[in-house]
Amino acid sequence: MRAYSKDTRIAFPREPARWLTPTGLLAYHGGRLVRVDRRTRKVRLPDLIKTMPTPFVGLSENPVPRNMDPSFFHIVLLPPAAYLLGSIPFGKLIARAVADVDITRRGSGNIGATNVAREVSLGWGLATLFLDLLKGALPVAAWLFLFSDAGLRGGGKGLAAALAVSALLGHQFPIFLRFKGGKGVATALGAFLVLAPWPCLLSALLFALVVYLRGFVSLGSLVGALALPLFMLLTAKGPALVSAALVSAALIFLRHRDNLKRLLHGEEIPWRSARLKREDPAGGPVPRRKRNE
Questions:
Q1: At 20, which helix (H) or strand (E)?
Q2: pTM, whole model, 2 decimals?
C-alpha cells in the first residue's frame, strides 16, 4: 500500500471522488481515504484511514463523486428555479389552511411571518418564518452541495449570489400573486445564513436588539439589512457576495418604504401594541376554521 506523508501531493483527475469537509477535502486515492488541503492539494494528516464510519453511503473503490462542474444548463436554469421557489406564498397558504382567512386582506396585507403572527397566531407565524428561511437557503445550499469546488470560488460566488437575489425577488414579487409579495427579510436571511453565516448572525442579533429596545419589527429589519453588507465587507467576503447583500438591502428598503414613512412620522405601530390590539376582545380574534368545515 502506498505510503503518504504531509508533503504528498495528490494529482486529481477531472472527476475525482472527493467530498468537502470543514478541514479540507476527503479523497479516495490509491485505495485509501486521504484528507487533502484544498489549496495545495497536499495530504493534511499523516495517519490516514482506509475504512471509517462516515455518512458517505456506498463508499467504495470508485464511489460516485458528489462534486460536478457547473454547465451552461445549470447556470441558465438555477436562478429561475430559485425565483419560483421564492414565489411560493407560504404565509398566504398557512393562513388560508389554518384560519380560513386571506392574509393579504388582513393587518398589513403582507404575506410574511410578522403579519401571520399578528393575524393568526405566533406559532403559525414562526412556521411561516421557517419556511420563508428555507426558500432562501435551499437554492444556495443546493448549489454549494452539488458544486462544492466551484461553489464559492471565482465565478461560483457570482452564481451563488444570483441565486440568493433570485429567491429574494421571488418572495417580494411572486408570479403566483401577481408580483405582490412580502418584505423578503426572512428569505434573505436564509440565503445569507448559507453564504456568510457569521455576518448574517451578527445582523440577526442586531435586528433582535432593535426590536427588543424599540419594539418595531420594521425598524429592526431595516437596520439588519443595512448592517449585513457592512459586516460582510469587514469579514472580506468578496465583491460578489457584498454586492448581493447591497442589492438585497436595497430591495428590502424598497419593500419597506411605507413602513419607513410611518417611522419618520411616528405613525408605525410597535409589535407589542399590534399584538395587544389583536388579542383585544373588542377587536375579535381571528376565527379558526373547524375541522368539519
A1: strand 18-21
A2: 0.70
Name the pairing type of β-strands 18-21 and 24-29: antiparallel
Query: What SS3 state is found at 293?
Result: coil
DSSP lists the bridge partners of residue 25 as: 20, 36
Interval 143-193: pLDDT, tens = 887 765 554 555 578 888 999 999 999 999 999 998 989 999 999 999 999
H or E element that contains 36: strand 32-36
Point out which residues pair with 27 in neighbouring strands: 18, 34
- Residue 219's contacts (CB-CB under 8 Å, 6 or more residues apart) are 210, 211, 259, 263, 268
Q: Is 192 exposed, middle or buried (0-12, 13-18, 19+ CB in 10 A)?
A: buried
Task: Note every long-range contact of 35-42, with CB atoms under 8 Å and residues 24 or more positions apart, other chains counting.
Answer: 36/10, 40/9, 41/9, 41/10, 41/11, 41/12, 42/6, 42/7, 42/8, 42/9, 42/10
